[in-house]
Amino acid sequence: MSSDNQWSADEDEGQLSRLIRKSRDSPFVPVGIAGFMTVVSYGLYKLKYRRDQKMSIHLIHMRVAAQGFVVGAVTLGVLYSMYKDYIRPRFFNVSKK
After folding, report:
1. Residue 78 CB neighbours (<10 A)
2. Can you give the pLDDT at residue 43?
3. Which helix (H) or strand (E) holds 87?
4. First vs last Cα of the chain: how many Å apart?
5. Phi and psi angles of residue 79, each rounded to the nearest 5 degrees, phi first
6. How far apart (Å, rounded) are the C-alpha atoms in residues 30 and 73?
């Protein structure tokens, strides 16, 4: 087995540096994560005051809201990426970085 394929802890980047690098590549990832955490936190807070609503219905509503926020953030990220890669260079003669 070649030493190039060996995993080394020195070469592995930390979780925080990896998240920072990924958020630079696609800036809507942290927005999706933050929105998901916000919806989950709000859902847990409202769990106490759900009155006569069934638990399963409350959890389904919170799951749909969280997934909707993440899908919306991913969609905005894709649209931003398409704009950055195709539309802006074509109309504004901006070089790719």
Report:
1. 12
2. 86
3. none
4. 37
5. -65, -40
6. 9
Tens-digit pLDDT string for the chain (97 aa): 455 566 555 456 788 888 888 788 777 778 878 888 898 888 888 888 878 888 899 889 988 988 888 888 889 888 988 888 888 888 887 565 5
Whole-number pLDDT of residue 60: 92
- Cα–Cα distance list, 19 to 22, 23, 82 (Å): 5, 6, 22
Question: Is 75 within 8 Å of 37 (Cβ atoms)?
Answer: no
Judge whether 63 and 15 are in contact, CB under 8 Å: no
Three-class SS state of 30: helix
- CA gap 43, 64 in Å, rounded: 11
Structure tokens at 61: 């509503």
In 3D space, the residue among 20, 21, 28, 61 whose CA is nearest the CA of residue 44 turns out to be 61
25: tokens are 């590549």
Predicted local confidence at residue 74, as pLDDT: 84
